Sequence to fold (90 residues):
Amino acid sequence: MKKPTSSLMKRFFYILVGVIVLFTVSIGLVVYMAINNVVKNTIAENNTLVADHIVSQLDVAKFEQFAQNPTENDLYVELQRELTRLVRSK
Fold:
């Protein structure tokens, strides 16, 4: 015949293991979500800084002139080359 305390101890042990596993998974999920959020924000901030740097080097007057007549002319080709040069040199 089994001792009743042995069965109770097994039940307590399984419950304790289940709670530990649940807490571990929960903490892992929270850490994953936090790191994912930090990485997304860092990438967004970096992209904003790169875009600001590129915009600071552009000739706004030429882009305004192009915006008034957006056709593939010499100005378009010049602006395209300038943008390509700036993006590649970042």
In short: Helices lie at 4-56, 60-68, 74-89. The longest helix spans residues 4-56. DSSP finds three helices and no strands in the chain.
